[in-house]
Design a protein that fits this description.
There is one protein chain. The strands form five sheets. Strands 1-2-5-8-9-10-11-12 form an eight-stranded parallel barrel. Strands 13-14-15-20-17 form a five-stranded antiparallel β-sheet. A three-stranded antiparallel β-sheet has the order 16-19-18, with no helix packed on it. Strand 6 and strand 7 form a beta hairpin. It has 15 helices and 20 strands. The two termini are about 40 Å apart. Helix 8 runs antiparallel to helix 10. It is α/β, with parallel strands linked by helices and about 475 residues long. The protein is globular. About 30% of the residues lie in helices and about 20% in strands.
Length: about 475
């Protein structure tokens, strides 16, 4: 059965939190050795961020206009990122356990904030109870058919082939045999349990790895039966049309397809293509305004209107280098990318720390701790930018729920309208090195947001300076 995407997503500004790196509350007992909060992040180090620490900074998020959180995995795990799940029914004790998560959910809901959590259903960690049983008992394990075992003895920790199916060749991530009805039902139960607990959505990891017929459709139907307004968003880096709309799988996918092309258009020669090689963005060369516009229209044309507005758009995350690093810390590129992110169809998602100018390459560089104790290090320009864009989106329904219409595209620029029944806003962006004059064929007035030089002439022609952009009323 096809469910419409939840309407609240259209009005959302998401904020992605990597729990171990966001904030320590000092209220959660931490065992073992912690990595220094201010030290450069490492692949295996644990810094001790917790969910009560998130609560302490909800005012900061509200000032950014944030009204929805996306949390990286919170379940028990030996890894700092918690994609190596040990127990799907237990919130990691290092984060404060289930009690802290309950407190966070209640605090967010009291403010009107939604909470979406990460679901990793394709694979587990070696400490997962069923895989541990296989390691202990070998061929006699009752959970043998929960995994795709190639032979014994297993090689879970040494070199060479692990002799079981894994995610991306990592022995630490045994792949679940989702085709097994018992495994499938176990995962359905996990999804339903946390839906009943009160989460507002699931961000579903690597869904393309699970090609079992009907799995995602069943999961969608079952969690929507618990809460029809629960949001399902898949981690899909490519064309989303297979996964949304009539497929009845997800409400939306992560908008990496949008973020990657926006970077290619807005950053131009400032885009660090060497850094980009470490991620799955298809960024080979800069993209001109016409190519950018055509790509957007092709993708939007494949999706129903409601699905377009439910997209979770982003240009930076725990799986990519930081935006400032991607654009070689070029301020104009950063602003144009963020302006387009906040003004495009779908909900924008801000990666924690981007609002204060954190930098960093690929994992682990992009997962530094938030410098709460050092506000003097914050990029105040970036903070003001995100507050301004958050306010702009919150105050203008056309940016949240309006349709998209291209007005103009040149080699260096793009202009488009966001149109709601009682409001139209026009977004102009010039990524080139010389000014352009754009006759948009629609009435525009004074800018609501400006970066660089943008002037509206008496004849309606908009003059957009080099590396400039604006939102016009």
């Amino acid at each position: 059965m096809r469910h419409a995407p939840p309407s609240w997503v259209e009005d959302a500004i998401f904020y992605q939190i990597f729990p171990d790196r966001f904030a320590r509350s000092g209220k959660v007992k931490q065992l073992g050795r912690l990595e220094a909060w201010d030290a450069p992040p490492t692949s295996d180090g644990v810094k001790g961020g917790d969910l009560l620490g998130v609560i302490e900074h909800l005012d900061h998020l509200a000032e950014l206009g944030v009204n929805a959180l996306y949390l990286n995995p919170i379940f028990a795990s030996a890894a700092n990122h918690r994609y190596h799940t040990a127990d799907f029914y237990s919130v990691d004790a290092t984060l404060g356990g289930e009690a802290a998560f309950r407190t966070l959910l209640d605090a967010c809901h009291a403010r009107g904030m939604r909470v979406v959590i990460d679901g990793v259903f394709n694979h587990v960690g070696r400490g997962f109870f069923a895989f541990h049983d296989v390691l202990e008992k070998g061929p006699e394990s009752r959970f043998l058919d929960w995994f795709e075992i190639e032979g014994f003895p297993l090689n879970a920790y040494g070199g060479g082939s692990p002799r079981y199916a894994t995610w991306a060749g990592h022995a630490s991530l045994p792949k679940l045999a989702v085709q097994n009805p018992e495994v499938r039902e176990y995962l359905m139960g996990v999804a339903e349990h946390w839906a009943r607990f009160g989460i507002d959505g699931w961000r579903l990891d690597t869904p393309e790895e699970i090609r079992v017929a009907g799995f995602w459709e069943e999961l969608s139907a079952r969690v929507k039966a618990v809460n029809p307004e629960l949001y399902l968003v898949g981690e899909v880096w490519t064309d989303p049309s297979e996964w949304v709309g009539a497929s009845a799988r997800f409400d939306a996918v992560l908008g990496y397809w949008f973020g990657g092309r926006t970077l290619a258009f807005a950053a131009r020669e400032h885009l660090d293509l060497e850094v980009c090689k470490t991620i799955d963005y298809p960024l080979k060369t800069p993209l001109d305004g016409v190519g950018y516009a055509e790509f957007i229209e092709t993708l939007l044309g494949k999706l129903p209107e409601a699905t377009r507005r439910a997209a979770l758009n982003l240009d930076s995350s725990h799986d990519t280098p930081r935006l400032l690093t991607l654009v070689r810390e070029d301020w104009a590129s950063f602003v144009l990318c963020r302006m387009l992110l906040y003004c495009f169809v779908g909900a924008p998602c801000l990666y924690y720390g981007d609002e204060v100018g954190l930098t960093g390459g690929h994992d682990p560089g992009s997962r530094a701790a938030f410098p709460w104790q050092h506000p003097e290090r914050w990029n105040q320009q970036a903070l003001a930018l995100h507050k301004s864009l958050g306010r702009l989106r919150r105050e203008h329904v056309a940016l949240r729920r309006g349709s998209y219409r291209r007005l103009s595209a040149t080699a260096s620029s793009l202009a488009f309208a966001r149109e709601a029944p009682d409001q139209t806003l026009v977004v102009v962006a010039n990524a080139g090195d010389s000014a352009e004059e754009l006759a948009l064929g629609t009435r525009v007035s004074a800018p609501l947001f400006v970066h660089g030089q943008v002037e509206v002439g008496a004849d309606g022609v908009v003059r957009v300076g080099a590396r400039s952009g604006a939102v016009l009323g």
